Amino acid sequence: MTTERSLIDNALHGNAEAFGELVRLHQNRLFTAMVHVVGCPAEAEDVVQEAFIRAFRKLDRFRGQANFYTWLYRIAFNRSVDRRRTQKPTRSLETAKQQVEQRATGEEQSPSRSLELQEQSQRVRYALDQLSESDRAILILREFEECDYTTISEMLGLKVGTVRSRLHRARGHLMEELKSLDLQTGSDSSRNPSTLA
Length: 197
Fold this sequence. Notes:
Blueprint: H1 4-12, H2 16-38, H3 41-57, H4 68-86, H5 93-102, H6 111-130, H7 133-144, H8 149-156, H9 160-185
């Protein structure tokens, strides 16, 4: 079985198929992560495509100190930040609702339980969209990607202690957004306020 390191080495020597294999290995995970970051599948697709193009052009700068996905994620995240600075926000509560419905699992659930989970997920997605780039990124990496503190520090270029403190702050900001949303809609967040759907 070809290792990731050998694929990188082969790609550096002009083997386009090797880089194509790296794309296949990581594109789904990176796309899912970027949907959480940018809040829109079409936008995430553009970010991922641009990230792979940049990674291909800068592959000679990959030192192997972090794993390839960590390096790639950082490129994609930085690209998403750049794009946001030049575009007007396009996300809405309706967009968040559509994303929740697209992610619905095939598990057997009662209609009322399924609806409750969708509503909760929709609230969390909307609240995440209100957060700053840095708060949203750190929550997504920890709660959705389930990255450890060391990996997050590598991806975001932060010290581990800073990751811990920013994660704590980001969770607080998310709770504030959820409470604010509940006040606006009259819903009750006490049913699982800390669950990130």
